[in-house]
Amino acid sequence: MNLFTKMLTCLLIATCITSEAQPEKAKPELDQDIAAMVEKLTTDISELEFLSEKVETIEKMDRDVLVFRLDERSFRVLNDFEMLVRKIAGLQEVSPESEEIKQRLIEASAGVGNAIFNRINEIKQRIDESYSGLESLSGAAKVASLAYLQSLEAIRIGYYQALERHIKGRTALGLSSGELRTRLDPKLSLYAETLAGRVELTDASLSQLRTRAKQIPNDADITAAVKELEAQHLANLNRLKMIIPILDSLGLPSATFKATLIQHSGSAISVSLFSSSALSTVLKDAWAGLKDSIKAKAPDMTLRLLVFLAVIFLFKIFSRVIRRIVRAATDRSSLDMSDLLKNMLVSISGGTVMAVGILMALSQVGISLAPMLAGLGVAGFIIGFALQDSLGNFAAGAMILIYRPYDVDDFVEVTGASGLVNKMYLVSTTITTFDNKTLVVPNSTIWGDVIKNVTAQKVRRVDLEFGIGYGDDIEYAEKVLTEIVEANEKVLKKPEHNIRLHTLADSSVNFIVRPWVKTEDYWDVYWEITREVKMRFDQEGISIPFPQRDVHLYKQTDA
Question: Model-level pTM?
Answer without folding.
Answer: 0.46
